[in-house]
Amino acid sequence: MIKAIGSRKRAVRKPDGSYQTFLSLIADLLDAEPVQRLDAFPHHADSSRLQHSVNVAYYSFLLCRQLGLDYRSAARGGLLHDLFFYDLANKKDGPQHTWLHPEIALQNAEEVAELCDRERDIILCHMWPRAHLPRYLESFVVSLMDKVAFFTEVGRTVFVNHKSPRRSNTPVSVRI
Ligand SMILES: [Fe+2]
Ligand SMILES: [Fe+2]
How much distance in Å is there from the Cα of 134 to the middle of ligand 2? Predict the structure, then answer.
């Protein structure tokens, strides 16, 4: 089973089966080789890029469902929002990475699945307010959950694993 950080109780105990719904919405994407390849890239603190993407997808799914928004696009766009394949340690300086990696992720995502406009916007605009302005409410949600996931991942490393927030070269698998 795959789980988002912090989701254990919800995944097991939530009577509405929301975690199974979430997994069913992204199952085809999770099986795709480019998405699985993200597990080899450290992203924030101890989290791999795949773990981060699952976190963003799941948090976005939950909030969009609560708000009556398109939670399917939020889950799928959230999972693909960081679909790029260079190590952040080798990234170009800030603004270039900030603007370019959503465009690279969108190009890669188009190869993995047929995307709707909302999913394209989610991927392209997830760095808002530092980059592209979203056109859809779901994109604002994913952009916000991207930041929430960042703090969750770094916080987990510092407060749960008691480590420096510097990235490890050893990615954490999201398969349990
Ligand atoms: Fe990103
Ligand atoms: Fe991200």
Answer: 15
For 146, what's the count of Cα atoms within 13 Å in the CB-facing half-sphere?
25
- Architecture per CATH, domain 8-84+91-160, reads as Orthogonal Bundle (1.10)
Ligand sitting nearest the alpha carbon of 101? 1
Would you say 45 and 165 are in contact if contact means Cβ atoms under 8 Å apart? yes
Q: 80 C-alpha vs ligand 1 centroid, how far in Å?
A: 10
pLDDT the model gives residue 172: 38
Query: What mean pLDDT is predicted for residues 152-168?
Result: 70
CA of 20 to the centre of ligand 2 (A): 23
- Using the mean position of ligand 2's atoms as its centre, give its distance from the Cα of residue 162 in Å: 23
Q: What is the mean pLDDT of residues 122-131?
A: 95
Residue spans of the domains in the chain: they are: 8-84+91-160
Q: Find the mean pLDDT for residues 112-120.
A: 98
Give this prediction's pTM.
Answer: 0.85
